[in-house]
Amino acid sequence: MSNAVGQGAANPGASPPASSGYAAKPSSRAQAGAIEQCGAIQITNLDFFYGETQALRGVTLKAPAKRATALIGPSGCGKSTLLRVLNRMYDMYPNERATGEVEMDGCDILGPDVDLNLLRWRIGMVFQEPTPFPMSIYDNVAFGPRFLENLSEGEMDERVQETLLRAALWNEVKDRLSEQANSISIGQQQRLCIARALAARPEVILLDEPTSALDPLSSLKIEMLIADLKQNVTILIVTHNMEQARRCADEVAFFYLGEMVESGPTAQMFEAPLRERTRNYFAGKFG
Ligand SMILES: Nc1ncnc2c1ncn2[C@@H]1O[C@H](COP(=O)(O)OP(=O)(O)OP(=O)(O)O)[C@@H](O)[C@H]1O
Fold first, then answer.
1. Domain count of the chain?
2. pLDDT at 286
3. Residue 271's CB: how many other CB atoms inside 10 A?
4. Distance CA 178, CA 181 (A)
5. pLDDT (0 to 100) of residue 37
6. Of 269, 27, 11, 275, which Cα lies nearest the Cα of 150?
7. What is the rounded distance in angstroms from the CA atom of residue 48 to the CA atom of residue 52?
8. What is the ipTM of this complex?
9. Residue 158 placed within a domain
10. pLDDT tens per residue across span 173-201
11. Which residue in 39, 13, 30 sits closest to 122, CA to CA?
12. Which helix (DSSP H) or strand (DSSP E) does residue 50 occupy?
């Protein structure tokens, strides 16, 4: 395999900074004996504001490492906002702010010294509509490793192949790696976006309604992929599809009007929710 597009793709060429408020390297985590906890997220008393509009109110939630946590609730209750906080996307918008605490493996994600480029590779995000970069399939997958690591050409080829295999896309694109990413189907593009996030070997992947733009077969492939990935990566998924939450998630958190009403193991949440508002939502009394 070779990268037919060569080095033509965007390559920031930057190494991660030597010190970062957040960025513990795998080796230092191993030294700290915390390797088993990679990707555990603890959110405590989180408020979020779009200008004067408060979108999250005192949210406290734990997303366990290497599990899938589904965020559910009616439209506008703050699910996507929470994902935007976790990789500090809101930092790009001056009138948006978060207060409270968000920690990953004990490191403060909201702190002022966090290297945001690095954070966004460690906590990757996939959106409702596939967002492949305007470059080849190969270069999409190689984008993160080129930013984060100094891999040889052979090592990069191996990383791309290994990642596309994990994303269950290799067999479909192995002869088309130099083609533009937008030449493949929408469902394949979404798996490519997941592969692009995975190639950087993240601790966490955030999925914001990842199948809502896809046909049923493509959705099924993504769900199967989630089941496989969560053995190694913490997943937070926003979904309006209750059956998808039931199939994919180990934990479910129900949001309403910016508050986290209730969370727990998926079976308990579906079969015996504690709060009346959660019961009413599951019963379809409001949407
Ligand atoms: N850019 C913005 N400026 C102002 N308010 C916003 C902005 N984006 C979202 N909001 C508001 O923040 C609240 C939470 O929105 P958010 O998109 O997080 O909800 P959601 O639960 O993900 O909804 P949906 O399921 O429809 O995607 C809503 O009241 C929304 O109107």
1. 1
2. 83
3. 9
4. 9
5. 53
6. 11
7. 10
8. 0.98
9. no
10. 999 999 999 999 999 999 999 999 999 99
11. 39
12. strand 41-50
Residue range 61-103, pLDDT digits in tens: 999 999 999 999 999 999 999 999 999 999 999 999 999 999 9
Q: What is the dihedral of CA 17, 193, 40, 287, to 10 degrees?
A: 130
Nearest to residue 141, comparing CAs of 154, 129, 159, 118?
A: 159
What residue's CA is closest to ligand 1, atom 16?
78
- What is the distance in A from the centroid of ligand 1 to the CA of 277? 20
Two tokens, residue 119: 């954070």
Residues of the chain with pLDDT under 70: 1-37
- Nearest residue to 114 (alpha-carbon basis) of 23, 15, 12: 23
**Domain-embedded: residue 246:** yes
Place of tokens 């080796």: 27
Closest ligand 1 atom to residue 81 Cα is: 18
In a domain, 117, yes or no: yes
**Domain for residue 23, yes or no?**
no
Q: How far is CA 44 from CA 5, 31, 163, 260, 277, in A?
A: 45, 27, 33, 11, 22
CA–CA gap between residue 208 and residue 178 (Å, rounded):
28
The residue segments making up the domain with residue 69 are: 35-54+62-131+187-282
Ligand 1 centroid to Cα of residue 220, in Å, is 27
Answer whether 193's CB lies under 8 Å from 130's CB.
yes
DSSP 206: E
Structural tokens at position 169: 């896309």
Ligand 1 midpoint to CA 85 (Å): 12
User: Which CATH number belongs to the domain containing residue 127 in this structure?
Assistant: 3.40.50.300
Ligand 1: residues whose CB is within 6 Å? 50, 53, 55, 73, 75-81
